[in-house]
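In response to reviewer comment 3 from the previous cycle, which asked for concrete evidence that the modeling workflow produces usable outputs, we include below a single protein chain processed end to end. The sequence was submitted unchanged, and the resulting structure tokens are shown without manual editing.
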Amino acid sequence: MISLDLKLKSLTVDDLSAILELDQACFGGLWTLEGYQRELDSPNSELLGLCSPLSRSTLLGMGCFWSILEEAHITILAIHPQYHRQGLGQALLYSLLKTASDRGLERATLEVRASNVEAISLYQKFGFKTAGRRRRYYQDNGEDALILWLSDLQHPQFIATLDNWQTIISDRLSKYSWQML
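The workflow returned the following structure tokens.
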């Protein structure tokens, strides 16, 4: 069996068209070109992409967080619909949390649609807990958002957990012939 290489990279202005394509495929055009340009220009923003040289889509997934004081506020976690349920979301969330931990951030938070059971399940696997609800948060349909939190990113036990996740994610990816470079 041939394994497909997966590469994690910091996204740049050169990736803008691929970013917009992925945004369209996942969210129907949630953010604009200007919105992503602001993310790329901001020193407080980390925009990571999962790429594979052999795939039809240049960008398989992307994740973004803002560094706000000692918190990583995850604003986007998107995997191209064609690649759902193959471990790529886990790999990307792991990478965001590892990057946040490496930057010295203490906590991670995010909002997720209350109906997005798959995403909520993924976040809970990584230890996120529901901290509250934002009523009618999503403008497209007035749906509520759950506010999720993960604390202790600097705790030695969390660092050990990260190492453990890396092994679990690697095993899951290999089941679908993916291999992180």
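The beta strands are 4-10, 45-51, 59-68, 71-79, 107-113, 129-134, 145-150, 178-180. We consider this sufficient to address the reviewer's concern, and the full set will be provided in the supplementary archive.
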